[in-house]
Amino acid sequence: MSTDQKQAVATTDKPKGAMTIGEQLQKATPDKRARLVGMLIDSVEPQLAKACVNGLTVQKVKNALQRLANNPKSAKLWEADPRSLLVAINEAAGYGWEIGGVFGHCYLIPYGGSVQMQPGYRGLLDLVQRTGLIRSVVVESVREGDTFEHIMGDEERIVHTPSRLPDRHQRMITHVYAVITMTNGGKARCCWSRAEIEDHKERYSKSHNMSDSPWKTAWEQMAKKTVLTQVIRRGKVPMSMESQRIFERIDAESGDPETFDAVALTADSDGGMGDRQ
């Protein structure tokens, strides 16, 4: 084991007087920072490999973290307790979720000196679809210039025709909506305006003002996650017990007072099927 590897492993135990992994990474060049992160993951590879499911590999975890290490906006992540970082990484691996990026399932958020794993939009989609009772999930953004109508009443409908303007994807998002269709034909819907999403973010997100917050780096994905969360809560959407635990934790961490209203799948409620992964 090289000197750098020994230092990376030692920092997970935080011996007295030793630099935290964050201090090492902040003082290192981007190339060395990524290398140190890779060595940290190598040091726990056997345990992490056991945690990885659904096709996730230790190499994919390492690649994601090294991309984060090269991102200047992630500096606060490396200042947190390295043990909490490893716990968050292991938790993401246990769901088979890729970390960070626009197409990632979850994010690593530094908060109060520790790191928390926060499910993203794609992570929530994955949880919903694992039940086997969902036919389709549509989550879309409405932009300025689109034709859009949200019709309330006994037969709620959402009508959305995206514009064909060449700069559509640069235009401001005005609404985000989600429609979940169950295999029994039932539908659950939620549509929020940009103002409603911003209000919810200001009230309940503890990290939205941080420079590396997903609300600053991936606003659209976080907005979709917010609306998808609401439709799951309100729409009696079938969820596994595993999924319900994630949502309960989201409530606990965000302080969102709304009651979690999804239907947990149990041997009693799903005809003996139980959790389906």
What radius of gyration results from the CA coordinates? 21 Å
The fraction of residues in strands falls at: 15-25%
Q: Globular, elongated, flat, extended or rod-shaped: what is the shape?
A: globular
Low-confidence stretches: 1-19, 255-277
pLDDT averaged residue by residue: 77
Separation, N- and C-terminal Cα atoms: 39 Å
Spatial strand sequence of the major β-sheet: 3-6-7
Helix content: 40-55%
Q: How many independent structural domains? A: 2
In total, the number of strands is 9
The biggest beta sheet, please?
Answer: 3 strands, antiparallel
Number of helices: 12
Provide structural commentary.
The chain is α+β, with helices and mostly antiparallel strands and 277 residues long. The protein has two domains: 3-119, no CATH class; 123-264, no CATH class. The chain is built from twelve helices and nine strands. α2 packs antiparallel against α3 (30-43). The longest helix has 16 residues, at 219-234. The protein is globular and about 60 Å long. The model is unreliable at 1-19 and 255-277 (pLDDT under 50).
Concise summary:
The protein has 277 residues and is of the alpha+beta class. It contains twelve helices and nine strands.
Question: What is the topology?
Answer:
Elements: H1 3-11, H2 21-27, H3 30-43, H4 45-51, H5 58-69, H6 75-79, H7 82-95, E1 106-111, E2 114-119, H8 121-129, E3 134-143, E4 147-151, E5 157-161, E6 173-182, E7 187-193, H9 194-204, H10 214-217, H11 219-234, E8 238-239, H12 241-254, E9 263-264
Parallel strand pairs: 8-9
Antiparallel strand pairs: 1-2, 3-6, 4-5, 6-7
Helix pairs in contact: 1-3, 2-3, 3-5, 4-7, 8-11
